[in-house]
Amino acid sequence: MVLHPIFIFLIFILLAPLGHASTPSDKNSSPFDFLKKLKGSHKGNNTKEIHKLKAYLEQFGYLKYENETHATDDDFDDNLESAIKTYQKNYRIKSSAPVQRAFQTWKNFTHFTFAQVQTNRNSDLLIAFYRGAHGDYESFDAFRPLAHAFAPTNGSFHYNADIRWSIGAVEDYFDLETVALHEIGHLLGLGHSSDDAAIMYPTIYSGVIKNLHEDDIQGIRALYNR
Ligand SMILES: *[C@@H]1O[C@H](CO)[C@@H](O)[C@H](O)[C@H]1NC(C)=O
Ligand SMILES: *[C@@H]1O[C@H](CO)[C@@H](O)[C@H](O)[C@H]1NC(C)=O
Ligand SMILES: *[C@@H]1O[C@H](CO)[C@@H](O)[C@H](O)[C@H]1NC(C)=O
Ligand SMILES: *[C@@H]1O[C@H](CO)[C@@H](O)[C@H](O)[C@H]1NC(C)=O
Description:
Keywords: Calcium, Hydrolase, Metal-binding, Metalloprotease, Protease, Signal, Zinc. With 226 residues, this protein is mostly helical.
């Protein structure tokens, strides 16, 4: 079967938006199972269930239809194609590298290895961007929190999509990697530190980069006796 390149790529990033750790155990079915049926769709096609993809992209602000009818139909139109392209640029280029580096940094001080997997079916960790209330313990608003994470077995790490994110120290923007280091600390079981030099200090400021500090390393070593 010939697959449309946009879709191969889209399926990959929707299912594995950033980094997941892999595990042999199996999990429930993915909310993105419907995407599998969209493989092979082209612009101009009418493809069953493509309205779900439209709804997903609209939820994250990538797609806006003036005419509601088009938002809920199954036409693969110009708006949808253009939204997919924007989505790919943002998610692929902006966020996966800093998150992968943050996992590498933590890996240095634990016995864990982390690998990104193609689907979230059998991953321990799932990382994604959300906006507002998104069905878990804590809603996001336009300013806070920057992100949150729940240790396994939950394993979710959510960035707040309304925050201004950067790669590196940019005034008024928050560094993706610094926040990833903090949230991965939570994923690994660490709580907050009262040492303001530690990555696990509860507050992270815009415009700055932070790395692991001796306090964080002692914390993770104490936790895993390593
Ligand atoms: C989708 O559109 C392409 C190009 O117009 C066409 O070749 C293909 O048969 C269509 N597929 C379906 C499932 O309609
Ligand atoms: C919305 O699109 C549908 C289908 O193309 C069309 O029949 C309808 O008139 C449009 N509505 C408006 C308000 O433009
Ligand atoms: C991991 O540790 C090695 C050895 O200390 C170091 O050279 C490397 O820079 C570290 N990598 C990260 C991503 O911290
Ligand atoms: C994590 O918890 C949230 C509820 O706050 C839930 O929506 C989500 O499905 C959970 N994820 C896993 C992998 O258990």
